[in-house]
Amino acid sequence: MKILLLLFLACLIGCARDRVSLPGNAAAPAKTGAPAATLTTVPPTTTSNVVGPAMPALSAEQIRATCIAGRRLICGRVLKVLPDGLIIESGYSDLLRPPLTESWLIPGTVSAHRDSAAIELNQPGTMCLGTIFLTDIPRRPKARDFDYVLLMAYPAGQYAYSPAPNLTKTIRRFSAGLETAVKLSLPAEQ
After folding, report:
1. Which whole-number Å values give the CA distances from 11 to 134, 155, 167, 173, in the listed order?
2. Strand 72-82 to strand 105-106: parallel, antiparallel, or no bridges (unpaired)?
3. Does position 132 have pLDDT exceeding 80, yes or no?
4. What pLDDT, on the 0 to 100 scale, is given for residue 186?
5. How far is CA 116 from CA 72, 87, 120, in A?
6. How does pLDDT run across 40-98, given as a tens digit for each residue?
7. Domain ranges across the chain
8. What residues have CB less than 8 Å from 8, skipping those under 6 apart?
9. How confident is the model at residue 147 (pLDDT cuts 50, 70, 90)?
């Protein structure tokens, strides 16, 4: 069963890689990695010795490469629908079973559970764990609270989330579109 799940995940990653049109042949994710608590979103880097109009293009390309390298498979439950995106508790690996993989949005009536022993690998295309904010989602079908989401997303910085009054959490922000992730990750001065 685990081998079948790994093969399916590899196929899903391959499909996402085809849509993004990555240069060259990237290796499949390894089976080992760091726990989710030690992973952080890599901040975009800028080149301080580049001056003039070449700097934004170079910085955007570096950010794009960072977003592609940090892409994650979002398999999670919608906690809250916001006007600009979704708050998702990711880590529901059993959503990777057919026929649930036919759509990016899965009804909340589906039986799914989180694997408490799962770890987030520091490899492109691996499953994301924890609470995240997802933006730039497809318009149809409309997501509702407690539905499930299954799609590839790109890191786009952080998001301040208020789960309760007088409580604010900073969570990772992801975008379903690569270009939106690059725009959200560009430094504020540009």
Report:
1. 23, 21, 40, 25
2. unpaired
3. yes
4. 85
5. 18, 19, 11
6. 334 444 333 333 344 455 588 999 999 999 999 999 999 999 999 999 999 999 999 99
7. 2-21+50-185
8. 96, 97, 98, 101
9. very high
Distance set, CA 184 to CA 91, 109, 136, 178 (Å): 24, 33, 11, 10
**E strands present in the chain:** 72-82, 85-90, 105-106, 126-127, 130-135, 148-164, 167-175
Condensed to tens digits (0 to 9), the pLDDT of residues 5-22 reads 555 555 555 555 444 433
Residue that wins the pLDDT comparison between 47 and 144: 144
Which amino acid, residue 165?
Answer: P
SS3 label, residue 37:
helix
Q: How far apart are CA 72 and CA 37, in angstroms?
A: 15
Q: Is residue 168 a contact partner of residue 160, using CB atoms and an 8 Å limit? A: yes
Token pair, residue 26, equals 């990237």
Q: Please, are residues 185 and 157 in contact by the beta-carbon 8 Å criterion?
A: yes
Length of the chain, in residues: 190
Per the structure block, which two tokens stand in for 187?
Answer: 């430094």
CB-CB contact of 131 with 89 (8 Å): yes
Nearest to 173 by CA among 119, 94, 182: 182
**Token couple for 143:** 């997501």
Q: Which residues pair with 75 in a beta bridge?
A: 150
Select the more confidently predicted residue: 3 or 163: 163
**Per-residue DSSP letter, 90:** E
